[in-house]
Design brief:
Shape: globular
Number of helices: 7
Helix content: 25-40%
CATH topology: Alpha/beta knot
Structural class: alpha/beta
CATH class: Alpha Beta
CATH architecture: 3-Layer(aba) Sandwich
Distance between the termini: 13 Å
Number of domains: 1
CATH superfamily: SPOUT methyltransferase, trefoil knot domain
Order of helices and strands: HEHEHEHEEHEHH
Number of strands: 6
Length: 186
Amino acid sequence: MRAIAKLRTRKYTFVLEDLNDPHNISAVLRTCECFGLQEVHIIEELRPFRVSTAIVKGADQWLDIVRWTSRQACLDHLRTRGFAIAVASSRAEKSFHSCDLDRPLAIYMGTEFAGNSDHIYQNADMVFKLPQHGFTESLNVSVCAGMMVAHLDRHMDLNGRDRYTLTESEVDEVVERWSLAHDLRD
């Protein structure tokens, strides 16, 4: 547990607003956990948070899932912690690959049907597009998350992963919580 916790990061997080499909939610959570993102924020203004156990494969038990009933409260909380709010748009000029990834980043993902709201675009610190070279304009939300998490992982590897990982006290806290949850205390 300690070896895994030492590779975790809170420098990046995802915010999932009112995702409808439990398969999509579960795939994003599983991807975040597999790549070592420790924290994911879930906004439930319109739809309740639901996972598919067959897809999530237990990843939700290793993550800090922070649930919100207000989009603005979530944004305010993340900003007070120093996160820049980043939002994808097919109309953006800037590629995700050219975004500043050295600052704490909260990647905001809106509902599958409507995408991100105007409110989020107006409150974003960074609007980017995912590089695509085909005719179809949009990708599945879990595919988008996977692409971004893999890019973040590569960025951390290239720039010294230890610059992004949890502090020793955060590692201790996470390991203690995991141990208690799984009744693995010494």
